[in-house]
Each structure stands twice: as C-alpha cells, then as structure tokens.
Amino acid sequence: MAKNILAIGAHFDDIELGCGGTIARHVKNGDNVIMLVLTNSAYYNYDGTPIRTVEVAKKEGENAAKILGVDNLISVGLETKTLQYGFELIEIINKVIDENNIDIIYTHWDKDVHQDHSAIGRATLNAGRHVKNILMYRSNWYHTSFEFRGNYYVDISDFMDIKIASVKAHENEYRKFGDGWIEFFVNENRNAGQKIGCQYAEAFEVIKVFI
Amino acid sequence: MAKNILAIGAHFDDIELGCGGTIARHVKNGDNVIMLVLTNSAYYNYDGTPIRTVEVAKKEGENAAKILGVDNLISVGLETKTLQYGFELIEIINKVIDENNIDIIYTHWDKDVHQDHSAIGRATLNAGRHVKNILMYRSNWYHTSFEFRGNYYVDISDFMDIKIASVKAHENEYRKFGDGWIEFFVNENRNAGQKIGCQYAEAFEVIKVFI
Amino acid sequence: MAKNILAIGAHFDDIELGCGGTIARHVKNGDNVIMLVLTNSAYYNYDGTPIRTVEVAKKEGENAAKILGVDNLISVGLETKTLQYGFELIEIINKVIDENNIDIIYTHWDKDVHQDHSAIGRATLNAGRHVKNILMYRSNWYHTSFEFRGNYYVDISDFMDIKIASVKAHENEYRKFGDGWIEFFVNENRNAGQKIGCQYAEAFEVIKVFI
Amino acid sequence: MAKNILAIGAHFDDIELGCGGTIARHVKNGDNVIMLVLTNSAYYNYDGTPIRTVEVAKKEGENAAKILGVDNLISVGLETKTLQYGFELIEIINKVIDENNIDIIYTHWDKDVHQDHSAIGRATLNAGRHVKNILMYRSNWYHTSFEFRGNYYVDISDFMDIKIASVKAHENEYRKFGDGWIEFFVNENRNAGQKIGCQYAEAFEVIKVFI
Amino acid sequence: MAKNILAIGAHFDDIELGCGGTIARHVKNGDNVIMLVLTNSAYYNYDGTPIRTVEVAKKEGENAAKILGVDNLISVGLETKTLQYGFELIEIINKVIDENNIDIIYTHWDKDVHQDHSAIGRATLNAGRHVKNILMYRSNWYHTSFEFRGNYYVDISDFMDIKIASVKAHENEYRKFGDGWIEFFVNENRNAGQKIGCQYAEAFEVIKVFI
Amino acid sequence: MAKNILAIGAHFDDIELGCGGTIARHVKNGDNVIMLVLTNSAYYNYDGTPIRTVEVAKKEGENAAKILGVDNLISVGLETKTLQYGFELIEIINKVIDENNIDIIYTHWDKDVHQDHSAIGRATLNAGRHVKNILMYRSNWYHTSFEFRGNYYVDISDFMDIKIASVKAHENEYRKFGDGWIEFFVNENRNAGQKIGCQYAEAFEVIKVFI
C-alpha cells in the first residue's frame, strides 16, 4: 500500500544530500512524497551581493525534485538563516502533516550546527508527535557537541545516480563547492553501504519506527 | 520544618499530571506550596475556534489546585505555545523564587518536545541556580532524541485518588482525551511504584538534591 | 518472503517478557523463528535449595515456546548467573547466526543490570556484526546508570493474549512473583501502544535497522 | 527512625575519601552503618616488594573506621586489583544487603577507571536492585570516557575534620601521596559546598532515591 | 609561528575566569589574541538600580585585558542577558573569524545554564565551522542536565598570578562576590593541575583539535 | 624535543588501520614510537583450520611496522579473541608505559564491539592514568550502542601512501577482504580531511590532551 512520505529541508539541496536516494526509492515504490522546503534558500556576502538568489535556488530546487520524481514540492520561502525553533515553525510543519496523513518523516538532525537545520529538527519532534516514523538525516558534517547515531540504513544502490544528478541540479552550489562536495557524500553513502552490507546506503538516526 | 515548594507548569494540568501526587503529599506534610502556571492554557483549531478557552482553562485549573490543597496558584497568562527560552521567562521564574525562599522546585523536563515545556525546563535551570533542589517531571511522553532518567521516586500511594481527581478536574481536556489519558498516567505511576517498591510513585529526573 | 529471526535470552522467560508478542507475530507471518536460551535458568537460595530447577525451567520454557508457535528452541544450558562477556559466549551466538542466515536479531539490552543479560547483549553486538537488523529488549526494569531508548515499536495488539499465556506458562515463576509480574508488562505494553498509536506494543532500542 | 546504611569500597581508604563525611554524619544521626571493603588492599612493586601490606592496610582501615564512628567493618579480603564484575562479587554484596535490610547504599562509580572500583559499582547495581537508594561516589579522578554527574549533595561542614582524620589514618598511603592527596579532596568538597551553598559537601551521582 | 587566537565571552570577566591563564600564555608565546565580549555586561536589581553599570564593566574589562596582555578587545555592547542563539549572533562572530583568519577559538560551553553563555557557545559551533580548533570553557558551575567534559588541559602554572590579577581587576564583581569567588576558581585550576600532572591547569571541552 | 609515543593494538593491522598515518608522521618528526600488539593475531575457522597463522600474522606485522618506520614492535602474543579487561592486561600495558616514559598513547576505542579492542581500550584508561595524552582510534566500524566522537584530527596527507602500504603489507588479510577494505579506510580518511580542512586526516576521540 502506498505510504505518505514527508521530507523536510531547510534549504534547496538539503533533502537531496541527506536523503535523496531514499526519496527516489519511495517514488519508485509508488509512495506519495512531499518535499517541504522551509526557506527561500538565498544567501549573500557580507556586502549584500547574492551568492545564491531566490530565483536560482527555487528553479534549481524544482529541477532537483523532478529528477527525484517528486511532483509535490512545497516551498515556504522563509528567509534563509532566520529560522527559529518555536510556535510558527512548528505550526507550518504541523499543518502539512495534518493535511496529508503522513506515515514517515525524514527531517534534519535536531543537533545540526546550522541554526535553520536544528530549528527544523526540533520543530519536527513536536509537529510529528503523532506520526509513527521519524528519521533524521545529516546534510553537513560540521562538529557539534553531540554525535549523530546512524542506525537506520536504506539501500540506495539503485538510486545513487539519481541522487547525484539531483544534487548536481543545484548548479549554483555545485559551481561554488566543486566536485569535493559530491565526493564527500558519495564516500559517506559508499561507506554506509559497507557498514550494512550493500553498495550504497543512506544512514538515519531513528527517533521512532513503527512496524 | 515546613518547606517552601514551587511547582512550575506551562499549562493548567501539567503539574497535576507530572507531580500531582507529590504536591498533595507536600500539602499533607504542612509544606508551603506554590503552583506557577506560565500560560493561559487556551488553544485553538487552525481556523481559530477555541478547543479550550482562557476562562475554562483557568477555572478548571483553580479547581484542580483546590483538590490538591494548594491555595497559592500563580497564573501568569502568557499565550499558549509561545514560550521561548530567554530573559523574560527566566526573570518571571527568578522573581517567584527570590520572593518565596524556595527549597524545592518541580519543573518540566528540559528536553520535552513541547516548546512551552522545554522553555520552562531550561529557564528553571538558570532561575533556580541557587535553589538547593531541582527535580524535573514529564507530563507527556512524546519521543525526542534524549531519554528521561527517572531516578527520584516519591511514594504517592496515599495520594493517587487526589491526583486522579485533580486531573479529572480539567473536564474540558478529559472530555477530549477520554479515559486513556488517565489510564496512561495511572499505569506509569503504578509501574514506577513497582520499580521502587511501593504501590504508586511519581518519578523525577534529578538536577540536584541537597541533604 | 519469510525472514530468519533469532531471539536471544539468558533465561527461560526473558524472550517471552521482552518480545513475546513480536515473536508470535513473526510466527503468524510465516517467518522462521529461533529462540536461543543461553542458561539452564535454574537458581537457588543461599543454602542451595532450588527456587527453580533445571528440569522445571526447561519444561516450562518449552511450553512457552509452543504457545508462541516456535518449534526451534535452542537451549545451551550454561549455569545461570555465570555468563561472562567474552570469546565463548560470542562464539556460541556467532555459530547460530552463521548456520541460519539470520535477518533480524532480538537480544537483551547491553546495559541491563543483570550480568547474564548484559553479557548477552554485548556479545550479540560482536556476533551480529554482519547481521542487518539488531534490536534490544528489556525483560526487567532495574535501575542502571544508562537509560533505555525505546524507539522501535511493534504492534502486538493481536498477540497480547498469546504473550501473556507464554509468560504464565512459566508457572514456577508466576507462582513466585504473582500477578504484579504480569501486570507490569501489560502496563508497559499498553503505554507503549499509547505512545505510538495502537493498543499494545513492544518497544525496542535500535542498534541497526536495514530497509 | 534509624536507617541501615551500607558503604562499599574496594580498598581501605576509598570510602573515607569518597563519602567519609557522609558516613560520619549518618553515625552522628544514629543510623546503623556498615562499611564493606572487598579487597585486602595490599599492593606491590613489579618486583613483588610490598608498597602496602595486608596487615598495615587492615589496621589502618580499622583505625579509620573508628574515627568515623563505625563499628561494623566487614573486610572480605579479596586480592587487590583482581575484582571482576560477575556472579561472585554480586553474591557477596547481595548477601550483606539481604542480611541487613539496607536502606541506602553508597558505592563506587560504575565507570571509574580502576577495575576494582568499576567492578563493585556495576555489581552493586545488580545486588542493590531492590534497595531504595543507591548513590555513587568517586575516590579518584582519573579520566575515562564518561563524565561523573554530581547531583546529590550532602552537607558535611560539621564533619570535615573527622573525614580528614579518617583519611590520614591511612598513614602508609599518606606518607606515599603527601599533603596533595588531602588537599585535592578538601578542594573538591569545598567547591562542591560552594556549588550547593554550604561550606563543605560531598557530591554523589544518583542511581535512585526514594522519598 | 604566531597563531591567531579568538577568546569569546558573554560578559566582562567570563574569559578571565574560564581561560585567563591560557590567554596570558598565548600572549607570552607571541600569538595574536582577540578578546570578543558580546554584551555591555551591565546588570540591575529588579527595581532597575544598577549592580554593575556599562561604564564600570567596560573600564574594568579593559583593565583586565591589559593585565592579560591583550590589546585587541572587541566589545560589542549587546544588552546583558538578552543574547539569543540565531542569525545575528552567529554573524557577529562569523565576521570576526573571517576577518582575522582564526586558528583557535576559546568559547563558552554550549550547555551552560546562563542564556548568554549557551547562546554564544552554540553560535560559535556554527560560526567556527571552518576553524580548526574549538575549545569550550566554563565560567560558572551551575547545574544543568549535561556534564562538562574537561579533556584538554593547558598548563597555566606560570600564569596563575596574572589570571588572578585579571579577575580581581573586576573590582565591582570582586566586592560583590568576595574571596570565595577567587577561591573557587583557584581550587578548580589547582585540582585540574593535579589531575593532569602540573601545578595549575585550565580544563576545556574539546569540540575539535587539529594537529 | 622528541616525544615518546605508544600505539597499542589488539591484532597486527589494527594500529595501521586506525592510526598508521599518524605513526608515520611521528616517525618523520623524530619521535620514539613503540607499537604494542597484544595478541598473536592468528584466527581459525570453526573446524580449527587457520585463516591466519601466528607466523604469517607476525611476519606481516613486522613488515608493516618497517613500512611505517617503527623499529620497536612489542608483540605480546596472547591468544586472539581471548583478551579480558582486568589486572593482567592492565599490568602488561602499565609496564610498557612505566619503562618508556610515554607522552602520548594511541589506543583502541573503549566501546568497540570487538572484545579484544574494548578490553585494551578500557585497560589503557587505567594503565595510562598518569600519561598526559590518550587518544582513541577505530579500526572497524561495527555498530554498538555508543557513538565514536572524532574530535582530534591529524593531518596525514603526506603519509597516506605509507599508511596504505602498511595495511597492504598484511597480505593474508588483504587477500581475504579485498580492495573494499582499503577503500573503506581511504574514504574515511578523505572525508575526515574534508571535515577539518586538509586532504587526508585520521580522527581520534580525545580522552585527555595536555598542552
């Protein structure tokens, strides 16, 4: 039976990096997938010149969603870097959950050092309190004072190409970060695969799983 | 010698659910108990129709306090769900502590997924930095990425009936949640009792205890 | 496709208490279930008079397995309370895993205060290093300096009666501990069900899950 | 009403260093205190020449107990450094608990780097599973991969002199370690006092407390 | 080769208390040290009368910096107690890092109970994501629900006098708190020294170290 | 000034995999490096036929040490898989430390699932209690119930070739595990490098560092 899946990201590219392979697999399985991106994902130099504009971020995000096979992309358009844990953020997520009878949520790790990521991770814990499956992903590896516990593995061996393509669809970011950006996540997924016994895997931290 | 006790809750019913038996026991022992409820505890549907009004919440909260035997109920009346960890919340709690020479604080678990609960739990750590006993309770069991450590047990066998009555005094909530709501907490208190060797117990996480 | 399931317990009754409902569900689903019980489960008063004999423990354990629908009960017969984390215990478990191509392991929580339980939990981490799913259960609730993280829920609503019957098949223990013994676990499973949204559930701590 | 207190140490001097003030206070309050020392506390150079003999350790341990006001000193006499977590150690402690109806246990921190200390700490968790209060102390500060959580404070301001005298009664150790040994613990107790608001305090990690 | 060092504090005196000896040592070694103090450090009674004025705090902070040998003191002047984890705080710190090619950051412990301290500690994790060394210090010892892990020791034996002088330069605070304030930190540094094998040491929690 | 370095491994190849680059760098810097390998590293099929003989393991281990530039290889020759945390293991390590005035220890992660690894990691905590620097490495990535905290990075960019050569010197293992074995560690070191800002890095968990 088709499941209702919600993938939540702060910025265009977070979902792709953190759980793009898993999303592509859900699509292949016929599940209903919603991608919920909270910010407009634009950002700027100290002098205000844009590194990534609202328009480019959105267009590339839409392309990436298409590559993953996701039609339902909800872009909330909050200002990048300004997310705060609290009522408003919780309610936005809560509403999407309530209206779509969500079975599984993929969300940011609540201890990520990026303020937008951690705000979303924490908000999801509250908004998703009645959802039966919550799994957290990482889309960066900056150091914090907690350790990510990768304990839920999804075999994405058949979807690695799609994942990479969806990340590369963020051409503006790809130009900026270069191939090292791709290489890092490929290495992570390859080693996660070795840990669990398949070619490529995405690793999540379990908040709750219901069988 | 009578002790000065401060029980802090976000909403009318939190204190009752989390430490109602312990409060009733303090009252029985002749201690001075203050119940400090931070929000007006009203909440609404997405369309703005109230599920619980300010007036009902307050009236039922007052009834519950009476059942527990507490005269000193301080209702701050902040908007439900809007509490944020920070200066203002800390100062409100700080002032109550300073004016009442508090010996023991019962407060929310600082890692609770409800934003009002965690804000209060965290604020209490700062506001209560000079108080000699701080104990944290849970008034819901939603999943987070930390685990509650129940390591301080209070025998409430003689006060279980009062606790249940004080929870049921929240008639609006009781109608909404039904008997499963009561049953959950009775089961928790019963099993906590079995763990420590009495009929019913409330379990707290110790921040600090002074003997 | 039928899966190969391994449930590991120190003593006759641990598996039943910790994951009896889950086991009954696997049997119902047509999976191949092995119950591996490491000790003979006998124990004695300080003066050497038996509280539970080898023969009674075994016979009642066999009855319990039958109630759960499990034919394949492996009884290793080590002395109760003498299990130690190390080579021998790891090898015993390792061999059962290698010979049966195990997909999912249910084992003791590695931080349980009972020495037999923790030895098995730790040994399983090594023995099961190439198994794709390891889940830990609790069969007692004594206090330790770590907290169990119940984050994997199995709906056992349709199997609660079977679970209770399998526990009561340990007549010797049931006589000793009385109905409070049953009540404790029923309450736990009932509240776990409330937490995740079903009638009764068993909660496990995830070591790794592979999808 | 007088309580039955059990203080457990690996070597003569551990109890004095870790909870000597608390023990002296219990004695003053009329409680029944048992000191249970598991090893003979002798130790040797690599070449076998004794640094501390069985006889000296015992005699000085008895003197220290007297200074604390404790008559009931049980010396088990196991070989120093050879303690292992397991059946035998658990049973020794279990028996003392069963025969003396113990209300409160003070024991080693289960994560102490000294093998004798951690073995006792872990064994106490099992042996004391039905005891209502278990508190862990530190008697050294070597680094491990866990952090001690001092969250239960006992005001020992009136008993600091007795504590120091009981430590100094271990003349052999005092000669070896010098005044820095005493200074370290005095500083710890003084700063613990500052943290909780008294002159001198001993800090314990709570396993469980029952009120 | 001279290193670029950034010490971050919420209030004038935090850096001195938490890492004053380490700063003095960096200065002695010829490193370039920046002290970044985020608030104006004034605070008031409930009735609004100042306990510490903006002017006094700043002047004494400048004196303290001079005693440590630091010329580069950046005072941001935000309101005391109002710091919040988020975009603005992160950007302020980020800019100082970017403009000064920082090698090592000393910052507040991200779990400190003071809201200004924890906001800075968390903000540094993000702002310093590309800095190779981040170390956290404590400047108070109030209880929280996490434990500080002191695992990076700096020998400050030759700089203890300078540290004490820099703390005492905060005459307004010193008058208020008295010698117990100094004594507490001297005891901490002395015992940290004993733990690691020198006379006085400051202990930090490692976020990341790069060799 | 040359430092005295001790690298401890359970089996021939553990040190190479976990900290081979760091060791090669110490050698290059002129430090005195001791490699201490506790077991003979032989292991067998269930039927007793050797997968790796004592002789082969030793010879290849000696070759690997030469590749790293280490002359001082101490091979204790205990039986593989039989190591237990306790007196004997602690004393062996203690003696090497005492006789060589060790400044820095690299040892197994104390929570590794392999019994030999964790026994050594734990034993080092005690044996190295007076050593000023202890760092833990991983030489496998099997799942446990704790998470490794990589927070101390060593730039091994110039030593990656040597490290790979030293691992491949274990020809018997290399034949068995194939290139995936090498690939896994190269990916780990490459991604660790990306995390900290260099080409290749080895990541350790800090127990204590002294500056």
Descriptive notes:
The structure is a homohexamer of 211-residue chains. Chain A is globular and about 50 Å long. In chain A, helix 1 links the parallel strand 1 (4-9) and strand 2 (32-39). The first copy, chain A, contains 7 helices and 9 strands, in the order βαβββαβαβαββαααβ. Chain A has a 7-stranded mixed beta sheet, with helices on both faces. The model of chain A has no long low-confidence stretch (mean pLDDT 97). With 211 residues, chain A is an alpha/beta fold. In chain A, helix 1 (14-28) packs parallel to helix 2 and helix 1 (14-28) packs across helix 5 (160-168). Chain A has helices spanning 14-28, 54-68, 87-100, 115-127, 160-168, 171-177, 179-196, and strands spanning 4-9, 32-39, 43-44, 50-52, 72-78, 104-108, 133-137, 152-155, 201-210. The longest helix of chain A is centred in the last third of the chain and has 18 residues, at 179-196. Chains in contact: A-B, A-C, A-E, A-F, B-C, B-D, B-E, C-D, C-F, D-E, D-F, E-F. The interface between A and C is medium-sized, with 17 and 17 residues. Strand 8 of chain A pairs parallel with strand 9 of chain C, so a sheet runs across the interface.
